[in-house]
Design a protein that fits this description.
2 domains, 42% helix
Length: 201
């Protein structure tokens, strides 16, 4: 995996090279349903959810509300990291279903202007994952077979992962960081498109 550095991050070149675009009609939002644990949470995100839970509650399933009451607004996974609780080991407790598609109740409350917190950054950034490496952060692409329709759609539309996720990347790292990423992407594109010089011997 080729990586490059932007400030205090090590970034996988895959997020520039790979095309992506969520296709909810095909995947049905299964990233909210499948997996070994809930969505990763930052401590301040768990606090935001707790503070604004009364505004989020109306958008959740009864089973989700019960799971949160029993487990808490956030729980720790096997590695001791904060994640969202699940409903009996299945979907995230904060999701709901609309026309057979799993959607985020937190984001629904945000879109209806009930809260100012959109949703966990790990969800908003997916399929990009951010992990800590001492003083640095690794920004990499996480591949999951349930997202195959999104890779196919992105390939058809020519959308690189990092541009599809421009807003959450700016929210996580800032505009200047994103501008540097765009510059790296342009330099890489120029290199790819550079005519190859063939020397005949």
């Amino acid at each position: 995996m080729e990586m490059f550095q932007i400030r205090n991050t090590i970034v996988s070149r895959e997020i520039i090279e790979t095309r992506f675009g969520c296709d909810l009609g095909q995947c049905k939002g299964n990233c909210c349903v499948h997996g070994d644990a809930g969505a990763p949470l930052e401590p301040h995100e768990a606090s935001e959810i707790e503070i604004h839970f009364d505004a989020i509650r109306p958008y959740l399933q009864p089973e989700g509300i019960d799971a949160i009451k029993k487990q808490g607004f956030a729980i720790k996974d096997e590695e001791g990291e904060l994640v969202t609780p699940l409903i009996e080991g299945r979907e995230c407790a904060y999701c709901y279903f609309e026309n057979g598609i799993a959607r985020c109740g937190i984001e629904k409350a945000y879109l209806e202007k009930k809260i100012t917190f959109r949703k966990p950054i790990s969800c908003w950034l997916y399929p990009i994952r951010v992990s800590r490496l001492s003083a640095m952060h690794a920004v990499v692409l996480h591949r999951w077979k349930i997202c195959q329709p999104a890779y196919e759609k992105g390939a058809k539309e020519g959308i690189p992962v990092f541009r599809y996720l421009k807003n959450p990347l700016i929210a996580r790292f800032g505009q200047e960081w994103y501008d540097e990423l765009e510059q790296v992407a342009q330099e890489w594109q120029n290199e790819v498109e550079k005519p190859q010089v063939v020397i005949n011997k």
